[in-house]
Amino acid sequence: MPDLAQILIYPIKSLDGVAVTQAKVLKSGALEHDREFAMVDEQGRFVNGKRNPKIHLLRSSFDLNARTVSLQIQDTESTQVFHLDEERTALEAWLSHYFGKTVQLQQNIFQGFPDDTNAPGPTVISTATIETVASWFSEISTNEMRRRLRTNVEIANVPPFWEDQLFGEADNIIQFQIGSIQFEGINPCQRCVVPTRNSLTGEAYTDFQKIFITKRQESLPSGVAASRFNHFYRLSVNTRIPESQADKILQVGNEVNIQDTVKA
């Protein structure tokens, strides 16, 4: 039986994640605290790995109960701890100094800052998929690939690319359930430049996208809605969770069941 192996939350968009054993579903369908904060510049643009490779040299850890973030520049010993609510100004000043430009921290406690606002639910992937994709590249471990992909929900006891059955043709929605929570699979997640870089150094892997696209196309399971792949630089599944599921708890160990296909 497929089950939920891991939940990863990213409290500040683009920074390191934190593994949790359970997470509450918000009314929007997002997981509580996931991408709750985002760093933006003076033009209101995200400060992220797509635009600023210095992101990769910034280590962060979170205490969600204490509402604190610890920041450390890679290969240094100094760590700075900030309260996310009470020391926001000091945190913004530290980030601005690090990035060399004005950085503000925006907050959205209702939906966070998902990449796909049409599908703000947690992204879903299988452990076997992460292991398989890592095997396509020399010197990239499973844990390193996990850090590069930055997905929320990881499913165990299934074969590689099992999650590709969680989306259908463009006019269909696949309904599935994790524990007591109803999910809707929407589409395969389009990837950006971030997975091409080492998560700790920012160093680019030569021909990463070319290798990924070739292997992904070769590995696409039979019966998958191939029409959803205008290109094959896609991996994991974007989801929605209906508003009726708000306040339910997603728990590691929950069983996963695929249910129905309905019209979008």
What value does the Rg take, in angstroms? Answer: 18 Å
Q: Helix segment count?
A: 4
Give the total of beta strands: 15
| H/E element sequence | EEEEEEEHEEHHEEEHEEE
Runs in which pLDDT lies below 50 for 5 or more consecutive residues are: none
Query: Could you report the average pLDDT, rounded to the nearest whole number?
Result: 96
Main sheet overview: 4 strands, mixed
Distance between the amino and carboxyl termini: 28 Å
What gross morphology would you assign? globular
| Classification by helices and strands | alpha+beta
In the sheet with the most strands, the strands line up as 2-1-10-9
Percent of residues in β-strands? 25-35%
Report on the structure:
This protein is of the alpha+beta class. The chain has a domain at 3-7 and 115-263. It has helices at 88-99, 127-135, 142-149, 208-219, and strands spanning 3-9, 18-20, 22-24, 37-40, 58-63, 68-73, 79-83, 104-107, 124-126, 153-156, 172-178, 181-190, 234-240, 249-251, 256-263. Strands 2-1-10-9 form a 4-stranded mixed β-sheet. Helix 2 (127-135) crosses helix 3 (142-149). The relative contact order is 0.21.
Task: Outline the fold blueprint.
Blueprint: E1 3-9, E2 18-20, E3 22-24, E4 37-40, E5 58-63, E6 68-73, E7 79-83, H1 88-99, E8 104-107, E9 124-126, H2 127-135, H3 142-149, E10 153-156, E11 172-178, E12 181-190, H4 208-219, E13 234-240, E14 249-251, E15 256-263
Helix pairs in contact: 2-3
InterPro entries: MoCF_Sase_C, MOCOS_middle
Domain MOSC: 88-259
Organism: Allocoleopsis franciscana PCC 7113
